[in-house]
Design brief:
heterodimer, A: about 130 residues, alpha+beta, OB fold (Dihydrolipoamide Acetyltransferase, E2P), 3-stranded antiparallel β-sheet, globular, B: about 350 residues, Gyrase A, domain 2, Elongation Factor Tu (Ef-tu), domain 3, 2 domains, 6-stranded mixed β-sheet, 6-stranded antiparallel beta barrel, 8 helices
């Protein structure tokens, strides 16, 4: 996905919404900036298919040598696909965070909004200020 | 960058694993100027230090360095320190006490009345007028050789001397906090940047890396070394911490010696141990240890994913009766039980040491 077309949590998760069979599917991952800050990932936990997620609440975690970092969902919905094998190939996440490094796909709840998320320019600004 | 004991310090320069690996395989350079440096000079300085520290100082020959502790009257640990007996090229003698950055203010306050009892001892806190740099790793001697007199690379472990680097005064000791061979240098603050640059240049062909606080922590953890505020506190006596070797009773009385005698005779109910965990999640400080009857029997004081061993390791305090190598135990990592085993400390020991 093109970073310029994604929306962002202030906590560094990205989300891109696609249409599939009339349903809105959100693809979620974490940003290159977050990975640079964490460095040296050793572990990742993702939810199972069918898990309900809510914007702003934890759906998993990544851990580096330095620290544990919770993953917060940017949207409301239900997990319909989990990136199998990503946890065993964390280098894939660092190599292509906006592509092969995607984590989960979420079927958006009917009334789901992407309010409160940052656009690319606002997210970049936040990173520059941190 | 992070604020640490009043110093603004980098957690990492490049990445923790890269800095850690460079130190294990070649060399790492650490700015440890935050460590407190206290100087005692005078014919009775050794008697003052005999009273303050848990190991005797008066039998130390010039050039010797000892790991020691400071305890309160109740036998609680106030700090873990290095004490050096140094001799200048002009034959002046003094003692240098290196204390933890976070404890410096507390220690200054603690020792003040005792220092006052020895008006002939000249006491100075030289922390802010000097800087301290650690060179650690198997290539340390090869790097130091290019910048210092051969006496420096001939230093034995836990020995030090007062010498020069580019005609400027420099205290060198063969000490460190990584489990590797290495040196620690104390120079005047105004000379620090130049000495740092010289060491980085001399180490370049060996792939030396600047190392931040993050890798300093993972390196000392692998080496099984305690960190004050984690494995050590005023609530923990040296025997519980497994630091009985740093207490010498019987040769004199000192602050805390009565209480320590009692702890030695009747140990407390917990003990510091090492844990090796399954999986890849690290047990961080505060994680509970749970026995087969689901009782909480201890807690983790430091933990990380070990870059050298490629598995999670931790130090913890656990009930005495369980504190034997090979005991299986569970650790509660943020709500998930993870299997672990009690293993001997250190987790990592360098070859030929």
């Amino acid at each position: 996905m093109q970073p310029e077309q994604l929306k962002y949590n202030p906590s560094h998760e990205w989300v891109g919404v696609t249409e599939s069979g009339g349903e809105k599917i959100a693809v979620i991952g974490i940003t290159d900036f977050a990975l640079e800050q964490l460095t040296d990932l050793v572990y990742m936990a993702l939810p199972k298919v069918g898990t309900k997620v809510t914007a702003g609440t934890e759906f998993g975690e990544v851990e580096s040598v330095k620290a544990v970092s919770p993953l917060y969902s940017p949207v409301d919905g239900e997990v319909v696909e989990v990136h199998d094998g990503l946890a065993d190939q964390l280098e894939q996440l660092a190599a292509d965070p906006f592509g092969d490094g995607w984590m989960i796909k979420v079927k958006l709840a009917d009334d789901a909004k992407l309010d409160g998320l940052l656009d690319y320019a606002a997210y970049k600004q936040q990173c520059a200020n941190s | 960058m992070a604020e640490f004991a009043g110093f603004n310090m980098p957690i990492q320069y490049s990445s923790i694993v890269s800095e850690h690996t460079a130190t294990r395989q070649s060399a790492g350079l650490f700015d440890i100027s935050h460590m407190g440096r206290l100087r005692f000079e005078g014919p009775r300085a050794h008697l003052l230090l005999d009273h303050l520290l848990t190991r005797r100082v008066s039998d130390m020959q010039p050039g010797m360095i000892r790991y020691s502790l400071m305890c309160n009257e109740e036998g609680g640990t106030l700090d873990d320190v290095l004490i050096a007996n140094l001799e200048t090229p002009s034959n002046r003698h003094y003692f240098l006490l290196v204390v933890n950055a976070g404890n410096r203010a507390k220690i200054l306050k603690w020792i003040a009345p005792h220092v006052a009892d020895f008006p002939d001892v000249e006491f100075r806190d030289t922390t802010e007028s000097t800087a301290m740099i650690a060179l650690q790793g198997p290539k340390s001697a090869a790097i130091a050789e290019r910048l210092f007199t051969p006496k420096v690379t001939q230093l034995k472990n836990y020995h030090g001397l007062v010498t020069e680097q580019m005609k400027k005064p420099c205290i060198v000791s063969r000490t460190g906090y990584t489990g590797e061979d290495g040196f620690e240098f104390i120079v005047r603050a105004e000379d620090a940047a130049r000495v740092w640059e010289n060491l980085m240049l001399a180490g370049r062909e060996h792939g030396i890396e600047a190392v931040g606080l993050g890798a300093r922590d993972t390196l000392r953890l692998e080496a099984g070394m305690p960190l004050y505020g984690h494995e050590l506190s005023a609530a923990i006596d040296p025997y519980t911490a497994g630091l009985g070797f740093a207490v010498s009773l019987g040769d004199r009385s000192f602050l805390g010696s009565d209480a320590l005698g009692a702890f030695k005779a009747a140990p407390r109910s917990t003990k510091r141990i090492g844990l090796s965990l399954t999986g890849r999640r690290a047990a961080r400080e505060g994680a509970s240890l749970v026995d087969s009857d689901q009782r909480t029997v201890g807690s983790v004081t430091s933990g990380t994913f070990s870059p050298t061993l490629q598995r999670p390791i931790a130090m913890a305090y656990v009930a005495h009766e369980l504190a034997t190598t090979g005991t299986n135990i569970e650790v509660d990592i943020r709500g998930t039980r993870t299997e672990a085993q009690i293993v001997p400390l250190p987790f990592y020991k360098r070859a030929n040491s």
